[in-house]
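Checked the freezer inventory, then went back to the computational side. Two predictions to log before the end of the day. The first one is the construct we discussed on Monday; recording sequence and tokens without edits.
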Amino acid sequence: MTLSHLWCSLTALAPEVSRGHAGDVRPAPRQGGASCRQARTALKSPPETRCAAPCPACLPALPVRVTSVEGASNKMSGAGKRVLIVFAHQEPLRSFNGALKEAAVQALSKQGCQVEVSDLYASTFNPVATRADILGDLKSTESFRYGEETAAAWEKGKLSQDIVNEQKKVQDADLVIFQFPLYWFSMPAIMKGWMDRVLTRGFAYGFPQFYESGPFTKKKALISITTGGMESMYGPTGVNGDINVILWPMQQGMLHFCGFQVLAPQISWSPSFMPEEGRKGLVAMWEQRLASVWQEKTLKFAPLELFDPKKGFVLNDDTVKNLSTKPQGLTVGQHAGKPLPPNNQTKANDASAE
């Protein structure tokens, strides 16, 4: 990749990301060759008609690429299942995230599922965890500890009503889908605030009720995201880094931690730089996947039995010894200084954690 190509790619993507509209149906204004020529002039590069490699500013459209589970069949429907879609986008209808949300509602409803949507922006969900989340007296009068106080409030039925409402939706759901655009290599603040406030201790986790022993072991969870950058930018050699590393805190640290059976993520790469046909293709692939989502295999995480609690919950001696003979790490997080297992957080057929 030439320096001019890198500059053009970042110049094309930066305005969209800074405005927080990664994944909108309406593409950001494309300056095309003009912006590229300006960048090449600033970098004293040759006046080429295109970048040395494809970039969003130069190409009329990106190829339709999506991360999805392969080999699924349509034998099992979701009749009688309950689905919760937690949706975080400011534009519920005229955005690509909105299109994916609506497609999921329709596809799953046709299966006989009961689908409920928590539209966080439309409902003005409060993402800030504060003392106001606990009704009545606190457990401790000395210092405020949010985790301990919300755990006690959950046991006594003293959490604020908006938290109670969301917890009931999660409790009723067989599948929870989180739909949002990738913001700063993570989720929008309002979605993170939902995680902080709704997944309280006692309700969503405890000790030792966590990971595969967590409260939600009979529930499935799936992250569906859109990106501003191309798929190649999120590869092991891409400028943004490996998407598996980005997904790890969300899928391991939030969903799997609470016991969810985590399905492979649905990643819609750079829809803002696609023509309408490309975006329709991404939606169609999402609908096709949802037709058999109930029989999908889950992502693999390192089971608790591999960790030694006497040594501070690190990998036990037998696992470390076995890992020493392997060419790659166990998972994205438990890599033991070895190369990361490819696709550990993006494909359910990865066997690295076995």
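The second is the one RB wanted added to the comparison set:
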Amino acid sequence: MSIGIPQKRRKVSAQIPTIGFSDEDLTNVLYPHSDPLFMTMKISGTDVWRILVDDGSSVDILYYHAFKKIGFADRHLAPSPGPIYVVNYIEVPVVGTIKLPIVLGSGDRNVTQFINWLVIKGPTHYNGIFGREGIATFRGVASFMYQAFKFPTPNIIGVVEGKQKATRECHLATFKSDEHREHHELVMSGSLIKLADSTPSGSQGKRVKAKTDPSDKGKKKWMAQH
């Protein structure tokens, strides 16, 4: 007779309800379109609009001008571990980081979570980027086609509809300015990734060496690989 070693059971969290989209979600959507998803969220008690929902970004970005308008100052920022890079290795400096409460939804369909934001400066007509970290924190699903972000709440599925008209106005204003267009194309040209720490860990994945710019005098930059 053989005696097996009892296996520890994994703790199962509360079941997440199914999140889906249907034609009912298209009521306020203008077609045809290929518009990105922008939404309004309450950040530290302030309604902040023109937040781009981008699952191609591994970090959550709050632009400096929005950070200031919410009522914060540089003294509220924690140091950043380093700059961020887009896939073509262009460096974007980070002013600092800050953890703020975010409220999505309204009435009995709202959820509050704390998000770590990287605060950066740059010419732009929008106020932030809600990336994979934030999306995963809310356990949400975004759809640019249906112009909506859905997430579970204690009562029912919550939803934040995209601001499609504001999105188009934002893009029109962006591409009228060469400076804004250049920054927009820089940020949107690929996923944003954090600079890895000098000591690799399992959560950072494999390190890869970035291309060295001749002007950097042989300096090496390391990035976390997805």
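For RB: The two ends are 47 Å apart (CA to CA). Confidence is low (pLDDT under 50) at residues 180-226. Let me know if you want it refolded.
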